[in-house]
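To the wet lab folks,

You asked to see what we're planning to order before we commit. Fair enough. Below is the target structure as tokens, and below that is the sequence we designed to fit it. If anything looks off to you, flag it before the synthesis order goes out.
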């Protein structure tokens, strides 16, 4: 049981909804709103790959975590590095096999996503703006994977989802690096705020976030046949994002950075899947989004684990 709990900590289980909501737009848009076995398979592969990436993150940074997060499974020696790297690599391999099982295009993209995840965790995470660009690209590409997994093609609406998700996650990644900014500076870990400066980093984050919301609005004006009710999720995402980031912009510190992280998680769950509401009714989209949001809020409130 102790080892099981340690693995739960490694995969950051309170974040489980992020790969699901990032993949949903592509999968459901490509399936025209129908929940098929291919949609379920795409979500499962994305979730497993995301968890494997979290394990790899702790594997590559367990030496640093001895100073910054000594309670985590690897620095606390509840798990060995070998007990982390083998399951993570195995899961990655199974995800690639699952992608090719769906179709060749999906399999090739899974290989690309695994490469992005590995490069981010092993190299780019501590490379400032390069790290802030790499991870969001992988998160955004999950919507493309969802579409390819379902239909082998990428509908035009999915490209809106890809661009909006990537830009939103770029803004999120920059703001959430503030939660460890003092420790990162002491250890010589280069994050975007430490590389280009606090105010420039916040400016880049704000621009990326605004552009993400602008792109999400574009189908409302440019695609006349879509259901317009999807815009409700965009507006709710704006409210959650702005409300949780104001304090960080006023006082850039670790406490406000962690609050921005939690707010961005809520904003992501509302915003990433917003365009599924262009294909299905507001009731159906709410039946998908609201439970994911409520479970995430519950986990964030009850878990003692820093995410």
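Sequence we intend to order:
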């Amino acid at each position: 049981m102790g080892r099981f709990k340690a693995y739960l900590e490694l995969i950051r289980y309170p974040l489980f909804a992020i790969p699901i909501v990032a993949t949903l737009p592509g999968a459901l848009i490509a399936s025209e709103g129908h929940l098929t076995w291919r949609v379920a398979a795409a979500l499962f592969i994305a979730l497993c790959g995301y968890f494997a990436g979290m394990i790899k993150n702790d594997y590559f940074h367990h030496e640093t975590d001895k100073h910054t997060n000594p309670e985590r499974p690897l620095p606390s020696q509840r798990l060995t590095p070998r007990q982390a790297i083998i399951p993570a690599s195995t899961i990655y391999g199974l995800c690639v096999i699952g992608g090719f099982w769906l179709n060749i295009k999906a399999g090739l993209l899974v290989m690309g996503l695994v490469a992005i995840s590995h490069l981010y965790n092993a190299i780019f995470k501590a490379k400032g703006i390069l790290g802030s660009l790499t991870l969001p690209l992988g998160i955004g590409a999950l919507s493309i994977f969802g579409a390819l997994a379902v239909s082998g093609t990428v509908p035009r609406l999915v490209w809106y989802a890809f661009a909006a998700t990537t830009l939103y996650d770029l803004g999120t990644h920059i703001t959430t690096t503030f939660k460890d900014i003092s420790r990162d500076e002491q250890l010589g870990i280069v994050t975007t705020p430490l590389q280009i400066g606090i105010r420039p980093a916040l400016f880049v984050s704000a621009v990326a976030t605004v552009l993400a919301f602008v792109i999400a609005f574009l189908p409302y004006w440019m695609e006349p046949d879509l259901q317009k009710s999807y815009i409700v999720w965009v507006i709710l995402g704006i409210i959650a994002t702005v409300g949780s980031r104001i304090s960080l912009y006023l006082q850039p510190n670790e406490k406000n950075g962690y609050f921005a992280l939690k707010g961005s998680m809520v904003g992501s769950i509302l915003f990433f899947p917003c365009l599924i509401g262009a294909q299905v009714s507001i009731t159906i989209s709410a039946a998908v989004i609201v439970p994911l949001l409520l479970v995430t809020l519950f986990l964030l409130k009850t878990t003692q684990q820093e995410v």
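Structural context that might help your review: The chain has one domain: 15-302. The radius of gyration is 19 Å.

Thanks,
Computational group
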